[in-house]
Amino acid sequence: MGEPCWYVTTPIYYPSADLHIGHAYTTVAADALSRYHRLLGQDVLFVTGTDEHGQKIERSAEERGVSPSAFVDGVVARIRDELWPTLRISHDRFIRTTDPGHVRVVQTIFARLKDQGDIYFGTYEGWYCLPDESFWPDSRVHDATCPECGRPVERVQQPSYFFRLSRYQDRLRQHLVDHPDFVQPPSRLNEMVNFVEQGLEDLSVSRAGVGWGIPVPGDPAHTIYVWFDALISYLTAAGYLTEPEQFQAAWPPDVQLMGKEIVRFHAVTWPILLMALDLPLPQRVFGHGWLLIGDTKIGKSLGNVIDPIQLVEKYGVDPVRYFLLREVPFGADGTYTEDALVRRTNVDLANDLGNLLHRTIAMVRRFNDGFVPPFRPGIAEPGLDRVAEGVRRDVAESLAAVELNRAVEAVGRLVRAANKFIEDRQPWALYREPGARERLDNVLYSLLESLRVTSVLLSPFLLDTPGRIRRQLGLTTEVASWDESQWGQLPVGHHLDEGTPLFPRLERLMTEAAAAAPGPAEATPAPPPITMEEFGRLDLRVARVEAAERVAGTDRLLKLTLSLGESTRTVVSGIAQHYQAEALVGRSVVLVANLAPVKLRGIVSEGMVLAASEAGQLALVGPLEPVAPGARVK
Ligand code: ME8
Question: What is the CATH number of the domain that holds 220?
């Protein structure tokens, strides 16, 4: 591979549990970009994989009573062999950090940095956020909670190897300032510049007492810090130290995608590691936003995960991919609901696109006996060609800027313009108008050609739909090149069969756990088992109802004032149809006290009261014996 190769990465995911729609979000985005660059004729290296070492995985395995390696093997197999094939992810390499080749690269790099004085031995004293696997110095931690995710941090004191981040602080700051595209979107760049300007402390890059990791070369009592190991996977996967030609072609990465919560590792530790190795830095590190349920990030540890495999089984791969790519501005947070997925598919794909195809083929059959008419230049130019050219440019520009939702949205503009064009030109009137044959031919051709162009423009994003459009247009080939999106390539004269619906209208198939709405959810299937540790994250408290009133303008919601002994809370609960407000005062209920607050009808609700529900009946849950408010329920 002598040609330069377009290199894109996703984070390597922790196989601490099965992955969810949030991981699918990043990976589908990387897949769409890869497919686009392949259509441009570029060699592409698209890497994803799994981040298998560290304390979090070690503990997850321990809780299940299996060895870490048996544990990760099971989860990784489901990711690599089921999840990504289901979403038809076209990665070129899948890297596991337990691959022996990767282990060798990490140890070699560690030893080199130690030799050159970038890694030294000392004592670490500070904090550790286990869910994030991140170290925090005293200066950034308040109230023993993680400044990034807000969860409790652990105190750590241990002998440790340190990576001399401080040595590279000024160079990094300069790089960030000189390369405003390096970290995107721009708001993330500003955060990173601020972070670096606060001063970088040397980073602990080893753990004593964590056995599940890569041993420090020459000092096996220590294992290498999981993030140090993980970041190096981007090098290993590109062939660093093992495949010089591949590495030469691929390095540096063109785009590295990730969620915004790990931009710091990629915009600080990662470039400094590369500087220390004298390697070029990635062109662009892009931190996209989070998929939320209600106001809460979808996350493995929060128990609100949505399984992408189940969604694909219900709705098909294209609706799921379409939703992920189209719904949320890439870079911003956005809410996931199954309703929104169904709505998107019905409006954009079943209605706008499906109807355009259906109507166009019906008109060609009706007004031209099913034959694709010739295009006649010089006769009144219909105008869709200009729209198509503009859209094609916008798609390319949006993809170059990693604005995936804008790219997909642009394609929708062509579809809507073509639908409007039918209303404006009224082919049925031209059909009856004497002497309008050539104009009618141009109109029909333009509609067919818009659909063909659409099939090309959609092909980085959707997998079955472009082929289904093309077969109805009588095209037997798959899209092979982005150049095919240029106007005017539809062959003429062939006969079109009767059309079939492109997308059935979807019905909503599953009841969604209404995470943002406090109060009872409908009966849902039993969720998978959780560990004691996971259960322990719930802060359940006995609470006494001090006051209760109906929330104005609703018939479902009560505003409860709850005493927890030392403090009081306001909670909005959807129980008004089952309980009179006054009847609740003085009673004891159970409160989920550490649920992230949500705003409902302008009131900040700080928790959720537990209730059992069956067949539309609802019963609040409380202690059987009198207990002081504030008592922990466990
Ligand atoms: O952080 N919305 O792995 P991880 C959008 N192993 N994206 C989401 C998401 C959500 N709700 N939830 C997860 C790690 N993601 C490390 C990475 S890289 C050298 C090491 C996506 O399993 C998003 O890309 O916690 C996020 O950054 C990633 O999954 C975190 O995956």
Answer: 3.40.50.620
Confidence band for 380, pLDDT divided at 50, 70 and 90: low
The strand pairing partners of 291, in sequence order, are 334
Tokens of 496: 């079109």
Looking at the fold, whether 542 and 620 belong to one and the same domain comes out as yes
Judge if 386 and 446 occupy the same domain: yes
Q: Which atom of ligand 1 is nearest to the CA of 300?
A: 12
For 527, list phi and psi in degrees, rounded to 5. -70, 165
Which residue is listed with tokens 């980085």?
Answer: 460
Helix, coil or strand: residue 621? coil
* 280 lies in the same domain as 357: no
Is residue 580 scored above 90 in pLDDT? no
Q: What is the DSSP string of 465-506?
A: HHHHHHHHTT--SPP--GGGGSSS----S-B-PPP--SSPPP
pLDDT-derived band at 523, boundaries 50, 70, 90: very low
Same domain, 61 and 201: yes
Percentage above 90 pLDDT, the chain:
80
Number of domains in the chain: 3
CA of 134 to the centre of ligand 1 (A): 14
Q: Which residues line the pocket of ligand 1, CB cutoff 6 A?
A: 11-14, 22-23, 25-26, 51, 230-231, 258-259, 261-262, 290-291, 297-299
> What is the gyration radius of the CA atoms in the chain, in angstroms?
29
Q: What is the pTM of this model?
A: 0.81
pLDDT value at residue 428: 95
CA of 24 to the centre of ligand 1 (A): 10
Residue carrying the six token digits 């705003």 = 599
Domain of residue 11 covers: 5-288
CB of 144 within 8 A of CB of 127? Answer: yes
Same domain, 543 and 486: no
Q: Say if residue 565 is in the same domain as residue 484.
A: no
**Both structure tokens of 164:** 């001399």
Per-residue pLDDT tens over the stretch 58-117: 999 999 999 999 999 999 999 999 999 999 999 999 999 999 999 999 999 999 999 999
Buried residues in 557-567 as b, exposed as e (16+ CB within 10 A): bbbbbbbbeee
Dump pLDDT digits (tens) for 427-448. Answer: 999 999 999 999 999 999 999 9
Task: List the residue whose alpha carbon is closest to atom 8 of ligand 1.
Answer: 22
